Structures are given as structure tokens and as C-alpha cells.
Amino acid sequence: MTQSHTEPRINEVATRARAGLLNIISAITIALLLLRPETDPVIIVGPFVLFDMLAAAVTGLTPFSPTGILGTALTMNIRPVWKPTRPKRFAWLLGAGLAATCLAMRLFGASPVAMAAVVAVCFVLTWSEATLGFCVGCYMHKLIWGCQDCEVPYVRGIASGPPINAETSAINLESRA
């Protein structure tokens, strides 16, 4: 929680660093599945990512999520950007679902190419979060349950809007009524 918010908040900068770490893990897993399938990376990476996602969803980035701890440590000297936790936790539960799907595919003997396809979805989602700041799970949360406190910068245009002053604020409020 922060002084200006009653709900718990999470550091978006550390979250994006964590997504970058998970993106690297997914890229390596895809490469191993396609180039060296005999290494069987999913049997190791699957439980790790599943634990990591569930730990983050339950306790936040720290103290139990390994990539959350590392992402937080990597961003200690960067000014935090505080965001609501509920959309992130929803996104992490979706990530846990993808990890469980990939692990189940491995346990039921799916082909490495099929598992690589699921991991590729994880790759795209973590890349989007880490590089663009667009969290698909958070966006889905906003669409399903709404989030008045969520600032969704990727919905706005690339250029910043005109400066807000008292006159334009009054006009905007009147047009909404």
C-alpha cells in the first residue's frame, strides 16, 4: 500500500524486469525444445515457472517468487511505479495455467513442437510485458471486472494529450454528465 492508495500496490518496474527474466527462460526453453528435444527442458522449467507464478500470485514479487526477487533486486535503484496488484495477480494465475498446460502436455507425451507452441505464447506475453509494458492478463482483468484505479497507458495514443487545465477539466466533466 502507498500513502495515496488504500489497496495494495506493486512495483511495475520490478514486474517488467521479472517478465524479462521469464522471457529469457521461455526463449531458452523454445530453443531447447526445437533444437535439442532430448534435453527435456519442460520437466525442469515447467515446475519452476508454475511455482514462480503461483508464489507471485499469492505473495507478490517477494519473498517466494525467485524471478520476482531477482527482478526486484535488478531494479532497486530505479524509481518505482506503483500499480494495483489485482490485475497482476490475475495475469500470474493465467501464466500458472499456461505453465501447468505445458507441464501436462509433457507428462502426457506431447511432441516437442506442440510444447514449443505453448511456450511461444508465454514468450510473446512476457515480451509484451517486458518491452512494451502491455500486460495482456491485466488488460483482460480490466475488461472482465473493470479497474477504476488502473492506468492503462497502452490504450492511449503514442503522443501525449494536451495539458490539462481547469477550463478543459470543467468542459470534460460537463460533457460526461
From TrEMBL:
Residue stretches spanning the membrane: 20-36, 42-69, 90-108, 114-139
Native source species: Mycobacterium scrofulaceum
Protein name, UniProt field: DUF4395 domain-containing protein
InterPro entries with a match to the protein in the record: DUF4395 (IPR025508)
Swiss-Prot/TrEMBL keywords: Membrane, Transmembrane, Transmembrane helix
Domain of life, source organism: Bacteria
Domain DUF4395: 10-144
